Amino acid sequence: MPFHQFNPFTGRLKQTNHLQPLYPLAPHPLEKAEPPKMLWDSMLTKPAKVGPSVGVARFSKVDPKLLAKYKKFQEPNGIPVYLKGGPMDKVLVGLTFGLIAVGLVQFAEFVYKEANGIKWEK
């Protein structure tokens, strides 16, 4: 079975008689100029701080305004989340639905004109 070797000068594979492993890259020797940096323990090393035992729970301090918003939006009252913010949310949802509708109409117009070969007016 012939083996192939990449010729970087011509950029092609050439047949060779050398037995080669199936892995195409040649191994590179370890660079000995710079040894790897090792971290050693010293007198300046401090032990890690251990938290309280498992029975003690720490609670984060959350802003009361944020807690009120959490309660407002998580309340199961049947109102969709995107409308619970009040009138501004209704305006934003309406604007979003309107832009989506305009985009769909323009897409349908594009498909119709392209399918029927109608020229675009400038």
Automatic annotation (TrEMBL):
Q: Where in the cell is it found?
A: Mitochondrion inner membrane
Q: Which gene encodes it?
A: LOC107270745
Q: Where does the protein principally reside?
A: mitochondrion
> One Gene Ontology cellular component annotation?
mitochondrial inner membrane
State the family named in the UniProt similarity comment for this chain: Belongs to the cytochrome c oxidase VIIa family.
Q: Which InterPro entries match?
A: Cyt_c_oxidase_su7a_sf (IPR036539)
Query: What does the UniProt keyword field contain?
Result: Membrane, Mitochondrion, Mitochondrion inner membrane, Transmembrane, Transmembrane helix
**Keyword Membrane found:** yes
Q: Which GO terms describe its biological process?
A: mitochondrial electron transport, cytochrome c to oxygen
Record field: transmembrane: 91-112
- Name under which the protein is recorded: Uncharacterized protein LOC107270745 isoform X4
